Amino acid sequence: MKNLLVNLDQAGDFDEIIDVRTPLEFADDHIPGAINAPVLSNEERVLVGTTYKQVSPFEATRMGAALVARTIAHHLETTFADRPRNWRPLIYCWRGGKRSGSVTTLFNMIGWPARQLEGGYKSYRRATLATLDSLPKLFSYIALVGPTGSGKTRLLAALRDAGAQTLDLEALASHRGSLLGAWAGVQQPSQKHFDTLLVSTLRGFDASRPVFVEAESRRIGSVALPLALLETFHRGACVEVVSSRADRAAFLLHDYAHLFDDPAALKAQLQRLIGLHSRERVAGWQQSVDENRRAELAHELIERHYDPAYARSSHQHFVHLQHALKFSFRPIDADVVDQAKALLAQIEKHSLVVT
Question: What's the CA angle centered on 62, arms 61 and 64, to 5 degrees?
């Protein structure tokens, strides 16, 4: 079987990458571009594991072999029925063991020159973590800093539309970053899959051009940013995004419309602020929700929660914050791309990028 093993560096040599782990394992994270052809279902894998611990390794292996054999037969009749004679697939499972080994062996018996990824998904995960220690350091960053509601995320999107190179960490994390930042009806990726998405995005960048990124804390919802990325863009240039209090409140109402339209969910989120604020203050905010006083609540949250939190953090980690280029931004206007182009012109004029 040794001659059927290949390492991760050879993955690009194959026509297709097949992940034979369970759907749950695949959903947690997978090699980009891989398709899922599980040889055990989520429930079957639990059953085999339980048998291994409670009965015997032999019984678990016998049971697993029968289940895998039936599933491979099904895949041959369905998933892989149209693959040509010279099809070259790369197969992997959790750590390059029996699941991927069984499929690789059978495919070669059929006549397909299949190979098995040595070390399986675990080798890919180790490589991803190693990449996150080095790849972020190859780029020069320009961080958009400013309090909540100033429209940093919208400006970042406008910069992308204006032709700039942007890293939208909140889009990768499926979360806006603040306490009220959960995306309606959207689950965040696992930490592993977030890391995969981040590496894939960074690999698409041109190191000779700056990367615009929104200032974030270490965590965005449930996922964490790699330290190498944080440390590198903390040393980069800064643009301080300045918006009026009225524009910020209006933008907050627009950006969090899904929460304001779901009073129960908004009140539940506000309840989590107890500890940062008194019960009486939070109760008052919840009463504003009950009475549909949206604009008043938005102004209150900006004045009493978001701005004090921003002042406390003060983004002290940004080395060049005191030299930040101040940019007046109107996030609720329709001409945001034109505003972004104006910012790019100012950056070029001031030679803002720090290398």
Answer: 60
> What's the rounded Cα separation, in Å, for the pair 97 and 99?
6
Range of the domain at 50: 2-128
Closest CA to 5 of 86, 111, 120: 120
Q: Do 196 and 272 belong to one domain? A: yes
The answer to whether residue 355 is domain-embedded is no
| 215 and 287 both lie in a single domain | yes
Grouping H, G, I as helix, E, B as strand and the rest as coil, residue 71 is helix
> For 222, phi and psi rounded to 5 degrees?
-95, -5
Measured in residues, the chain has a length of: 355
- Active-site annotation holder among 20, 39, 91, 93: 93
- Segment 152-190, tens digit of pLDDT: 999 999 999 999 999 999 999 999 877 667 777 789 999
Q: Give the domain-ending residue among 85, 109, 128.
A: 128
Contacts of 306 (CB under 8 A, 6+ apart): 147, 148, 149, 178
Q: Is 238 a catalytic residue?
A: no
Query: What CATH number did the domain enclosing 52 receive?
Result: 3.40.250.10
Check if the beta carbon of residue 160 is closer than 8 Å to that of residue 221.
no
In this prediction the pTM is: 0.91
Residues 113 and 155 in one domain: no
Domain boundary among 128, 146, 179: 128
* β-bridge pairing 16-19 and 89-92: parallel
φ, ψ (nearest 5 deg) of residue 14: -105, 155
**CA atoms of 235 and 249, how far apart (whole Å):** 31
CB 282 within 8 A of CB 270: yes
Q: pLDDT per residue over 195-236, tens digit each?
A: 999 999 999 999 999 999 999 889 999 999 999 999 999 999
